[in-house]
Structure of Enoyl-CoA hydratase:
Amino acid sequence: MSETPVVLDVDAGVATLTLNRPDARNPLTTELSAALRDHLDDLTERDDVRCVVLRGAGPAFSAGGDIKAMRERLDGDGSLDDAVHRLERTTNETIASLVTCPYPTVALVDGPAVGAGANLAIACDVQLGSESASVGFVFRQVGLSVDAGTSYLLPRIVGENVAKELVYTGEILDADRALDLGLLNHVYPDDDFEDEAAAFVERVADGPTVAFRHAKRLIREGLDKSLQSAMTDEATAQGLVFETDDHREGVEAFLEQRDPDFDGR
């Protein structure tokens, strides 16, 4: 086992979180889940981060749930309530931390992302895939219902009918099919994946950070609001963003016919 389940690297405003159990295809173990959640919590306190990237070490993004732990639970004496509470304290809290992360989040899916691993990917704001990427909600293969936010996240991307189909069949989608359904925003050739993904992430990280923080929250909440409520909340957020250095820079750059140089403030 790797000593560090999740590796954090921060460079030029981009915080890259790498799931670091390549020997086991980066399963969402209790240790890995806790490490990822702790890093996400710590990042909210930093002033040198403008975008978060999530990726997997080795040939997979994430193989999903910890099958060994499932076997141990079946063979052990622990209560059902203990198992449910453990799920809530680990995977569920980690997914929630990822969804509510105040920075733009980008999943780099280079290889399989299945089960809870697929949810890690779609909990991010944007999903970039290589031609080798695959995505599947394969809970049925181990006789389980959905968890890790599937019922919330998946229908919002693919719609209710397709979400049911993907769960009922457990189909593992190749990169092109995942792209068609909106589970991947872009698919790049394997040889170009790193460069293309880096260029995309750089563009996001160079954006107006405070404005993005409000936009992310507003978009996430928008499906649960009336049109009038959504527009009222947007106006309130704009009032806050009007005071930022990035807004002033954006206006001045537009008038001077140059690209803005946002500093995230």
Observations:
- The beta strands are 6-11, 14-19, 51-56, 105-109, 112-114, 126-130, 134-136, 172-174, 186-188.
- The chain has a mean pLDDT of 91.
- The CA atoms of residues 28 and 65 lie 5 Å apart.
- The radius of gyration is 19 Å.
